[in-house]
Write a structure and sequence with these properties.
Rossmann fold, five-stranded parallel β-sheet, two-stranded antiparallel ribbon, about 25% strand
């Protein structure tokens, strides 16, 4: 039995893993005539080795500008390979909650595509892997994309 998908969610964070997951998600969407929701989620706190801290307003504005540029690039890239059914969003909130519950429900997501964590073991111990959480809690299929070869 071949699984068909209509609405695919992929997280965009600028990492090589996320970029490759986006490329793979587009190919899946193309085969299924599905729509891609490319999402960046900005949290109000960041993690450093000391602990969690608030992001300053100027740093937040800088992040929004950088991710707005990145989203324009990924949309242009998709159009350049003749794929046009991509909706791009930059959202503030809790990454785990949005990727696992709120966005899948809002957009009837039937597949979430994530890149393997780029965290080392130490970082994963302290902040956890978003991909691990999504795999355990998502209401739909999840595809984890390994490193590009």
């Amino acid at each position: 039995m071949e699984q068909e998908y209509s609405n695919i969610l992929v997280g965009i964070d600028g990492s090589p893993q996320a970029n490759y997951a986006y490329e793979c998600a587009i190919e899946i969407a193309r085969r299924n005539h599905a729509k891609i929701y490319a999402v960046t989620i900005l949290q109000n706190s960041t993690y450093d080795l000391v602990g969690f801290g608030q992001v300053s307003e100027s740093a937040n504005e800088h992040l929004i500008q950088e991710f707005t540029r990145l989203h324009a690039e990924i949309i242009d890239w998709a159009h350049g390979i003749d794929f046009h059914d991509v909706e791009s969003k930059i959202i503030h909130g809790n990454t785990r909650e949005l990727m696992t519950h709120l966005l899948p429900e809002k957009y009837s997501i039937d597949l979430i595509v994530v890149g393997q964590s780029g965290l080392n073991g130490f970082e994963r111990f302290f902040i956890g892997s978003i991909a691990d959480y999504i795999i355990r809690k998502a209401p739909c299929d999840v595809m984890v994309i390994g490193p590009q070869k």
